[in-house]
Design a protein that fits this description.
The protein is of the alpha+beta class. It has 7 helices and 8 strands; from the N terminus they run H-H-H-E-E-H-H-E-H-E-H-E-E-E-E. The protein has a 4-stranded antiparallel sheet. It has a 4-stranded mixed sheet with strand order 6-5-4-7. Strand 5 and strand 6 form a beta hairpin. The model has no long low-confidence stretch (mean pLDDT 93). It comes from Exiguobacterium indicum.
Length: 172
């Protein structure tokens, strides 16, 4: 694999408990060209991607301790970003991932990951939001405080320096 994936391989090999019985060669053989592009983007934006079992499936997911630094200060989606009358951010979650083979974490995936390792103790991450909530102008996000995982809501047009988002790549 190219040099750009050295950190990914090192991270994978340093945490065998997250993907028991899986070899790196097996992971590499499942990485299509578009998945390699997405993985490179995850690394470049600070996601610390690694392979984990999530809802019984193997995925590559952001395992950074805090929400990836290169994906913060963004609105939930483009319609929310464009609806801001003042101080619109440069991007939205939607615009950043639209050309990649990645998926925004669901609240259920976020909660399951929090049982495997703790993250977002100082930051928060936007989560996939049901259409009904989004149609009413809201969006979901999660964080971990007081050794507890919380799922909250906010206006989809809001953005904060400490809120980013996490994604996953399906390997199956």
């Amino acid at each position: 694999m190219e040099d750009q994936f050295t950190n990914f391989r090192d991270r994978f090999e340093a945490t065998p408990d997250r993907h028991e019985g899986l070899s790196y060669d097996e992971v590499e053989s499942r990485l299509t060209s578009s998945k390699r592009t997405a993985l490179a983007w995850m690394e470049q934006t600070g996601g610390d991607p690694n392979v984990v079992a999530l809802n019984g499936r193997l995925v590559i997911v952001d395992t950074a301790k805090e929400s990836p630094a290169g994906r913060r200060s963004v609105c939930f989606d483009e319609s929310a970003r464009l609806s801001r009358k003042k101080n619109a951010p440069a991007a939205s979650v939607e615009s950043m991932i639209e050309m990649l083979e990645v998926h925004l974490l669901t609240p259920e995936q976020y909660q399951e990951l929090q049982t495997q390792f703790s993250f977002d103790e100082k930051t928060s991450s936007w989560l996939k939001t049901p259409d009904l909530i989004r149609q009413k102008g809201g969006a979901l996000f999660g964080d971990r405080r007081y050794e507890t995982t919380f799922i909250y809501h906010n206006g989809a047009d809001s953005y904060y320096a400490s809120r980013g988002f996490r994604v996953c790549i399906e390997l199956d």
